[in-house]
Amino acid sequence: MHSGAMNESRRTALSPRARWAVPVVAAVAVGMAFVAPPLFASADDAGLPTITPEELAAQVASAEPSPLSGTVVYTARLGLPEIPFGAVAGADPINLLGGSSTMRVWSDGNQRSRVALLGPTSEYSVVQDGPEAWTYSSMDDAVVHYSLSAADQARFEALEAQAEAGELPVQSDLPTPEEAGRQAVGLARTSSTVTLDSQTEVAGRAAYQLVVTPTSDTTLVGRIVVAVDATTSTPLRVQVWSKADTETPALEIGFTDVSFATPADSVLAFSAPAGSSTRDVVVPLPEPPTEAAASPDEKELPEGVTVTGTGWDTIVQASGLDVAALVAGDPAAAANLPGVDKTFGSQGAADLYSEFVPEDGAGSPMGDLDTTALYDTLTTAVPEGRLLSSALLSVLITDDGRVLAGAVPGATLQALAAQ
C-alpha cells in the first residue's frame, strides 16, 4: 500500500491511534525532535544572494506551501539506552527515540498528503485528504478511518469556501511576513544569538542556514540550525546539537532527496489493502474561538503545574501524579493528568475521547507495548526517584508523584526537587 500522512497546516487536526503514543517520559524526548531546529554545513559558499536572519525568517513565513515528495531521514543520538528487547518491532514511532528512521512523504501543497514511517519489514502510514484521514499499520493489517459527521462536514465546506473567498473573519491585525520574521528573530534573541552560517547544499539543493545559539550557560542545547531551500523557502533539514558533543548532532531530520513537483493522484489517494480490518472514528470539528475567549498569555497554568526559570533554562514541574499507573498505561491515570479537561463541547468530542480513555478504565492505549520495561530501561534510580538523562533533555520522576522536565542537566532538576 502507498504510504501516507496528515498535513497540519490550516486543516482540522485528525490524530492517529493513541496506541502509537509513547509513555509520558519518552514523549517529551521525542517531541524535541520536531520543535527544535539544523547543521551539517558545507564550508563551500553556494553563491546565493546575501540575506539577513530577519529576511530569511520573513521568506519562510510568507512562502506558500509547496507540493513535494521525497525521502526524510530522522536520526536520534540522545545517549539513551537501547529500547528493551521485544518492546517494539518494525515501523513504530517509538523507534524515533534512538537510531535512524526513514520516512517517505508526499504532499500536493494543499489538502492532500501522505507519510510513511518505514521499518525493516513493516510500514506505518498516515494519509490525509481534506477533512478525512486514514492510518494503516502493516504489523496489525489494520486501517483506522477518521472523518467528520454530516453536520460538521457541511460546516467544514462552508468554512473552506469562506477561506477561498477571503471572507473569514479576522479578530485582530496580523503582522506582515516581514514583521513576523522580525518578531520571530527578536524573540529568539531574548535568550540566544541568531546568525547565518555558511550557505550549504541539502538533498542537492542550495540552502541558507539560520543558526540559533543559546546564551544560557546551563542548558544542554548547544546550537540549533535551520537549513532553508533558497528557491522555495521550504525548511529542508533540522539538526540540534548538544553541548556535550560538538562533532555530531544529537537530533537530525532532513530530506535526502526531494522534488517539488505535484505527486500523482494515485500516490495521494488511499486504498485499504485487501483483507485489512477497518475501524471508523468520527472526529468533531472544533468550534471557532469566541471573542471572549482568553488569549494564551491570559490563561493560567493547570492546577499542579509550575514553571521555573526562563528561556532555555525553563523547567516544568507537575505534581500529584500516579506515576506507576501512568507507566503501566492506565487510561484512568492519563485522564487525571493536570490540564486534561473532560468537559467537551460536543458529544462527538466526548465519543472520540472515550476511544482512547474508556470510562471504565479498561484497556490501555499503549496496546501490547511493555511500558514498564521501557520505563525501567530509559531511566536510572536516583535518591529522588527515577531520572531520564539525554543529550538534550532531562526528566526527573520523584517518588512523591512529581515530574520535572527541562533542557538542563539532571542535577539541576534534582536540586529543584529537593527545595
Task: Please outline what is shown here.
This protein has 419 residues and is of the alpha+beta class.
Structural overview:
This protein is of the alpha+beta class and 419 residues long. The protein has 10 helices and 18 strands. It folds into 2 domains: 18-282, Lipoprotein localisation LolA/LolB/LppX (outer membrane lipoprotein receptor (LolB), chain A, Clam); 301-417, no CATH class. Helices cover 21% and strands 29% of the residues. Helix 2 packs across helix 4 (177-188).
Q: From N to C, what is the helix and strand string?
A: HHEEEEEEHHEEEEEHEEEHHHHEEEEH
What is the CATH topology assignment of the largest domain?
Answer: outer membrane lipoprotein receptor (LolB), chain A
Radius of gyration: 22 Å
As a percent range, the share of helical residues equals 10-25%
Shape: globular
> For the residues shown, what is the average pLDDT?
77
Q: What's the CATH H-level superfamily name of the largest domain?
A: Lipoprotein localisation LolA/LolB/LppX
CATH class of the largest domain: Mainly Beta
What is the CATH architecture descriptor of the largest domain?
A: Clam
Main beta-sheet annotation:
12 strands, mixed
Terminal CA distance reads 54 Å
How many β-strand stretches? 18
Q: Can you tell me the number of structural domains?
A: 2
Poorly predicted sequence stretches spanning 5 or more consecutive residues: 1-44, 292-298, 342-346, 356-367
Oligomer: single chain
How many individual helices?
10
- Structural class, by secondary structure, is alpha+beta
Write out the strand line-up for the largest beta sheet, numbering strands in chain order.
7-8-9-10-11-1-2-3-4-5-6-12
Tell me the strand percentage band: 25-35%
